[in-house]
């Protein structure tokens, strides 16, 4: 399952699932992509289908392995990954080095176990209000689920996860 960043940073007011869907389509990717965020309807840990949580690796756009599987992101260690393996945007830029994302921080709105934090998810990602708060993770920590709180007015990285793997019937 591919983990890919949106092509621009976003404040806490975003239509992230739609953006993930749209940018994946524009990039020519055929699978469905959902935002790597807890929402008012769903915890981050359950965004990927049950059948795909254990046996499929989580990879970047170029197929390099970030996590052995979806469940390993939520084993309580904060989504520890190798910071030497880049996370790319849908248009192929490395979010860790590209200046389009001046702040190397990822929105997630979740606990380290992928459960939604209702007090810290920018009112279900509908506000960029300075007083509202969102849970996010600085990438330099090497964790996708580090527990830091930021104002929803910040423009951070938004990740998308391929949530349904469809194998090519021709392959």
Keyphrases for this structure?
171 residues, mainly beta, Mannose-Binding Protein A, Chain A, three-stranded antiparallel beta sheet, 8 strands, CTDL_fold
Your description of this structure?
The protein has one domain (1-170): Roll (Mannose-Binding Protein A, Chain A). The protein is 9% helix and 18% strand. The chain is built from two helices and eight strands. The strands form three sheets. Strands 1-8-2 form a three-stranded antiparallel β-sheet. It has a three-stranded antiparallel β-sheet with strand order 5-6-7. The protein has a two-stranded antiparallel ribbon with strand order 3-4. The longest helix has 11 residues, at 16-26. The protein is globular and about 40 Å long. The mean pLDDT is 94.
């Amino acid at each position: 399952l591919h983990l890919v960043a949106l092509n621009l940073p976003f404040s806490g007011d975003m239509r992230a699932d739609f953006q993930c869907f749209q940018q994946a389509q524009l990039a020519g990717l055929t699978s469905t992509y959902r935002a790597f965020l807890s929402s008012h309807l769903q915890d981050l840990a359950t965004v990927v289908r049950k059948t795909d949580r254990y046996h499929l690796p989580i990879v970047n756009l170029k197929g390099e392995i970030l996590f052995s599987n979806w469940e390993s992101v939520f084993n309580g260690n904060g989504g520890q990954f190798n910071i030497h393996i880049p996370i790319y945007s849908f248009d192929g830029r490395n979010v860790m080095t590209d200046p389009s994302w001046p702040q190397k921080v990822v929105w997630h709105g979740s606990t380290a176990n992928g459960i939604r934090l209702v007090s810290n998810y920018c009112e279900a990602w509908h506000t960029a209000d300075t007083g509202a708060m969102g849970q996010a993770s600085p990438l330099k920590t090497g964790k996708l689920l580090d527990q830091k709180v930021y104002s929803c007015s910040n423009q951070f990285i938004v990740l998308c996860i391929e949530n349904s793997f469809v194998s090519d019937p021709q392959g």
